Amino acid sequence: MPAYVPVVMFAVLFGLSMDYEVFLISRMRESWLRTRDNARAIVDGLAGTGRVITAAAAIMVTVFAALVPSPDVVLKSLGLGMAAAILIDATIVRMLLVPAVMHILGRANWWSPRWLDRRIPQLYVEGRPELFLPATTAEREPMPSP
């Protein structure tokens, strides 16, 4: 096997696994900001991204598995290695280990020092989370008519 095959596999797999991780954790964080409930954030994150991650991984496994019948040994090893790694990463790591560890850690998942929290930009892809919070009793009462 040529020396560049593991390097190429690592680079591609790192990029793919980070995509899956960003999908999963960003959805969990959005739910955490709305509810402040770690268990619900984990469930919402998995429910919101599980199908997307599974579908993307299935497509990538199929594409890389299609390289296995190739007569070229490099393509064969790339295809088999990438298909197996994506299958393991998407199913075992992203759908099992990450949520389990986050459940064990509880509220510590979302803790950061105040000085760091002020310096990190707050990006909201789908709008500000406070707009999606349940209304308080004062907000639910109808306004008196003039």
Query: Please, what is the average pLDDT?
Result: 86
Number of helices: 5
Q: Total strand count, please?
A: 0
Approximate strand percentage: under 5%
Q: State the end-to-end distance.
A: 81 Å
| Rg over alpha carbons | 21 Å
Net shape = elongated
The major pleated sheet works out as: none
| Structural category | mainly alpha
Order of helices and strands: HHHHH
Which stretches are low in confidence, meaning pLDDT under 50 for 5 or more residues running?
136-146
Helix content: over 70%
Description:
By secondary structure, the chain is mostly helical. It has five helices and no strands. The chain is elongated. The termini are far apart. The model is unreliable at 136-146 (pLDDT under 50).
How would the blueprint of this fold be written?
Layout: H1 4-35, H2 38-65, H3 73-105, H4 114-119, H5 137-140
How is this structure best summarized?
This protein is mainly α and 146 residues long. The protein is built from 5 helices and no strands.
What distinguishing features does this structure have?
146 residues; disordered C terminus
